[in-house]
Write a structure and sequence with these properties.
The complex is a heterodimer of chains A (about 190) and B (about 160). Chain A has helices at about 5-15, 25-35, 50-60, 70-75, 80-90, 120-125, 135-150, 175-185, and strands at about 20-25, 40-45, 65-70, 95-100, 100-105, 110, 130-135, 155-160. With about 190 residues, chain A is of the alpha/beta class. Chain A has a 6-stranded parallel β-sheet, sandwiched between helices. In chain A, strand 1 (about 20-25), helix 2 and strand 2 form a beta-alpha-beta unit. Chain B is built from 8 helices and 8 strands. The chains are: A alpha/beta (about 190), B alpha/beta (about 160). The interface between A and B is medium-sized, with 37 and 32 residues.
């Protein structure tokens, strides 16, 4: 089990110009460590749709890597999106799963299949070209640079514990603002 | 006069649509054939309609010009996406919706048809009814409205497409 802040910090250290879609509790951890907020798309509410939103950006901008920082509960809500992504196979899409086994936003109730669902297996079966699981920070730091260079779609299942600190929960309008900020940043 | 798939596609191309985010309904078979045969507009097939508005929002962020093509049952399925990634974010997108149950203005018996317009009205989503090729300029009007108002606008397809 990895510390959530250290885990996302590791991701942030390897981020250059990727668009990052994050959601639910992961977005509140990501906001603490992100160094390029102008390329961040925090999806406040609309649970489950981060993977679909990220897919759209990846399809429109094949020249740009898109990261999705999904939750396990969120992905369970939109599991079909694994097949949608596997079928369209955008090579520039990396789908991280912030897997804490609970609905942290609502107080920590276990998600269905907590500790048993194999997201790596689901992703592979759905057509992702790569799928990895990490539950140790040292291994993640060591292997992440190579994982990020592989042609996707790639799923990276990150086994994290409960967050010890969270950024503020942004208002819903933050998503609308971020969509426009990122759209402007991406326009030629 | 019917509603011809080739004419619909011509209209979508004239609108500059780059991607059609799509899940087939019982009325869009010929349109699918026309889009795939033509090849200039990309089809983005989704597994459930709830994905469609979210994918469209991402495409829009990336500079593409998406259109959503689903059935009214899929509109019901998409509720939270339309709320969160359509209305709340002000997404200027046209949703072309197969109007299952529509009987040309006669009383409907299919609940899919019965609830369609009341639900669009409840969300404050404006809509246009398209039944023949003659109505196709309404899709262009819907796009203009979506862009001017920064909101999703619906087009209800009240007729099966012909070849």
């Amino acid at each position: 089990m990895m510390d959530p802040i250290e885990t996302l910090k590791t991701l942030s250290e390897h981020r250059t110009d990727q668009v990052v879609v994050s959601t639910m509790v992961a977005l509140r951890v990501w906001s603490l460590v992100s160094k390029r907020p102008e390329l961040d798309l925090p999806l406040v509410g609309c649970m489950g749709k981060a993977s679909s939103l990220g897919l759209g950006v990846a399809l429109a901008r094949p020249d740009r890597q898109v990261w999705i920082i999904d939750g396990d509960g969120s992905l369970l809500m939109n599991l079909g999106s694994l097949v949608t992504i596997g079928n369209l196979s955008p090579p520039n899409l990396i789908h991280f799963v912030y897997n804490n086994s609970v609905y942290e936003t609502t107080g920590g109730q276990p998600v269905p299949g907590a500790g048993r669902t194999d997201f790596v297996g689901l992703a592979r079966a759905a057509g992702y070209l790569q799928a990895f699981r990490f539950d140790d920070l040292e291994t993640l730091s060591l292997r992440l640079p190579k994982v990020l260079k592989l042609p996707g779609p790639t799923l990276v299942d990150l086994h994290v514990g409960r967050a010890t600190a969270l950024g503020p929960l942004p208002p819903a309008r933050r998503t609308a603002e971020a969509l426009r900020t990122v759209k402007a940043a991406l326009s030629p | 006069m019917g509603l011809h798939a080739a004419k619909v596609l011509e209209t979508l191309k004239a609108m500059g649509i780059t991607h059609i985010v799509w899940l087939p309904d019982s009325e869009t078979g010929f349109l699918y054939e026309a889009i795939t045969a033509d090849g200039s507009v990309k089809l983005v097939p989704v597994c459930r309609e709830g994905e469609a508005l979210a994918v469209a929002a991402g495409l829009w962020v990336g500079g593409a010009k998406p259109l959503v093509l689903i059935q009214n049952t899929g509109l019901f399925e998409s509720g939270d996406s339309i709320r969160g990634l359509g209305l709340d974010v002000g997404l200027p997108v046209v949703m072309v919706i197969g109007y299952r149950g529509w009987l040309g203005g006669r009383p409907m018996t299919d609940s899919a048809g019965i609830y369609t317009e009341p639900i669009l009205k409840a969300w404050g989503i404006n809509y246009y009814l398209v039944e023949t090729d003659h109505d196709l300029p309404k899709i262009l009007a819907a796009q203009d409205e979506a862009l001017k108002t920064s909101r999703p606008v619906a087009v209800l397809i009240g007729q099966e497409y012909e070849k």
